[in-house]
Amino acid sequence: MRTSRPSRRSVLAGTAAAAALTTVPLPAGRATAVPAGQAYRWRTAVMGGTGFVTGVLFHPSVRGLAYARTDIGGAYRWDDSTRRWTPLTDHLGWDDWNLLGVEAMAVDPAHPNRLYLALGTYAQSWAGNGAVLRSDDRGATWARTDLTVKLGANEDGRGAGERLLVDPRDSDTLWLGTRHDGLLKSTDRGATWAPASGFPATPSASGQGVTLLVAAGRSLYAGWGDGDGTTANLFRTSDGRTWEAVPGRPSGTAAKVPIRAAYDRYTRHLYVTYANAPGPNGQSDGSVHKLCTLNGKWTEVTPVKPGGTTSDGSDDSFGYGGVAVDARRPGTLVVSTNNRWAAVDTVFRSTDGGRTWTSLKDTAVFDVSETPFLKWGADQPKFGWWIQALALDPYDSRHVLYGTGATIYGTRDLKHWAPRIRGLEETSVRQLISPPAGKAHLISGNGDIGVMYHESLTASPSGGMAANPVFGTATGLAQAAAKPAYVVRAGWGENGNGAYSNDGGQTWAPFEAQPALAQDAPGPIATNADGSVLLWSFVHWDGTPHPAQRSADNGATWAEVTSFPKGATPVADPVDPGTFYAFDTATGTLHASTDGGLTFTARATGLNSGDKEFQLAVAPGRSGDLWLSLKGNGLYRSTDGGATFTKVSSCRASYTLGFGRAARGASYPAVYMVGSTETITAVYRSDDEAGTWVRINDDRHQWGWIGAAVTGDPRVYGRVYVATNGRGVQYGEPA
Asked: Is 255 helix (H, G, I), strand (E, B) or coil?
């Protein structure tokens, strides 16, 4: 997955020096002067996961307690009494957007209420440093330590083993493996960190560093991902001070990168999965080995060797991912394949220490009725892909969970599987529409899962991913203002990149034809007020803009619009079918068309240029009433169709803007904004045309970066929908 965003905080020196200490109890908001807020109740529109679950961890000492981590959507705690996941990191705000990716998590078997998270989505120069959160109440409240190193929860290797570990000999001692700064150690329960002395591996700027940390008895093991298949990639310590390479380890490309490890305390064997790349992508070889910690003997126990061919002649290449041992039955364990596209990934189970294996996929019966999108437009769901998170309940030998690129599957009888995803939502949302009529109050355009029609906000859309064609990532979504039954969409798809709906988004049909550019550079799309004209802008995945194209016959034919600013987002006037608008951020110019998109001419010039994060919006039911969000440069308004703009003095910064039903007695729609009136970036509502604002989210509900889209509900006053980059659609209503 996913979207990467430039850093919104200064980048600190990425060395492994002792970390700065910053303790922050929840809620984690800043002490700033902001307008008095209105109490809102916030919930998540149910889609059902939709993102890469990179880790699942059962607590070894508490029945029914488990945690999950994701690459961009934070961490969760499983509530066994309600059968739901509870989000634990929604308090992280705009400036902390890079902390919504969870690199690793750890629990303390001796102190069941303690939980630790290592946060940091990107290890790139433009991203901020990582942080460690520590909790004494299972994630209800947190203390925080900001690190001086970077973590990479949404980079290669994100599905590898937990890189954070509580030392089993001393609950005050924690270990943290990093990608580029070696092994760190804390002796005060994560409050401060320093480089671990004696760790022999040398990190590289482009490597994986530590891929896993695991306790085996009183010894600790660390996997190392920077080797070439011949050098040491597994280290251990028995005293916490001196480390050594584990002798006799497997070598070769099939054992190049240790992915995950699990320890059987009955048989004293450490099981390790390997691959030739960190994954989740790019793995084509792998193996499984076990180490007898009593005598140092290694044994290969690989269920199926990668590299054969399937029945149709396809290359059956893959690596190995997750591994978990049964805490109740000696020699019983499960392992997963990863990146196995031809024969499809599976989970293998052994009851004899890996001598023989059974593929659980072969007898699996799936029920995805709770989250129909998991069929991906097919008749039946697949077992899954990107299976690196794998967990076995220490209190129930037949209770297995595994994460995929879209969900968590679970079984309690090793045969019947269903999503175990309630409460966990990880979608990166790009576009939002709240229709003025029809069954659905919400249509969303999303990363990875295309467009969803939400006939209910509390259940995953019954139609799943919008089919005909099925998109991966949506790039455009628009509704005809005077004909709301007509909706168009664009995105990345294997069988077409544009489609239309005549029933408000319930069912779709592909455009009869599409421009050649659509396959490699689908971008935003717009339809005019009566649905008679389409404008499709094209932007290559690398950001290269191309000329827009126009159709006046519902996508049967297309013609280039040379006067349209390349790469701009077309916006239709909600009243006049002949009028379109587009803002050219390269020159700071507002362009308009009055001939149905045939030609565009410049109107207002001299506006701020160069903002990659901007939005042009038109107030519903009002011709020429334009609002322009220009990131940190504020909010601007035009009431003459873009001929002139006036800066809105009540707003310091604006990132995205939308409209909803007007307040009682008000003649103008409610205006919703993600931005700031003074210093804090938050969600605001104005009932007086941006004369005054009231903050409507709170410090517990911030969701990191939320700059893609916001819209109010035209039928329900006060209801607002917020697009997040990893926490799905959040919707709020006055409490």
From this structure: helix
Determine the residue type at 239: D
What are 649-666's pLDDT values in tens digits? 999 999 999 999 999 999
- Tell me whether strands 442-446 and 450-454 are parallel, antiparallel or unpaired: antiparallel
Please identify which of the residues 316, 326, 448, 698 carries the catalytic annotation: 448
Structure-token pair, residue 50: 């939709």
For β-strands 720-723 and 710-712, DSSP reports them as antiparallel
Last residue of a domain, one of 373, 394, 419: 419
153 and 78 within one domain = yes
The catalytically annotated residue of 71, 181, 687, 698 is: 71
| CATH assignment at residue 488 | 2.130.10.10
Residues 6+ apart with CB under 8 A from 253: 229, 276, 285
Is there a catalytic annotation at residue 595? no
Does 577 reside within a domain? no
Residues 6+ away with beta carbon under 8 Å from 714: 434, 435, 436, 620, 659, 660, 661, 669
Question: In the chain, how long is the greatest CA-to-CA distance?
Answer: 82
End-to-end Cα, the chain, rounded Å: 34
Determine, yes or no, domain membership for 13: no
Same domain, 341 and 486: no
Verify whether residue 448 is a known catalytic residue: yes
Cα(138)–Cα(107) distance, rounded to whole angstroms? 9
Q: Are 126 and 159 contained in the same domain? A: yes
**Is the distance from CB of 525 to CB of 489 less than 8 angstroms?**
yes
Q: CA quadruple 197, 203, 205, 208: dihedral positive or negative?
A: negative
Q: What is the 8-class DSSP label of residue 353?
A: T
Task: Give the pairing of strands 308-309 and 483-491.
Answer: unpaired
Q: Please list, residue by residue across 453-465, b when 16 or more beta carbons sit within 10 angstroms of its beta carbon and e when fewer do.
A: bbbebeebbebbb
Last residue of a domain, one of 527, 562, 597: 562
- Look up the pTM and report it: 0.94
For residues 325 and 434, membership in a common domain is answered with no
Residues 574 and 621 sit within 8 Å (Cβ to Cβ): yes
Q: What single letter denotes the amino acid at residue 234?
A: L
Dist. CA 64–CA 437, nearest whole Å: 43
pLDDT tens per residue, range 458-498? 999 999 999 999 999 999 999 999 999 999 999 999 889 99
Domain that holds residue 205: 40-419
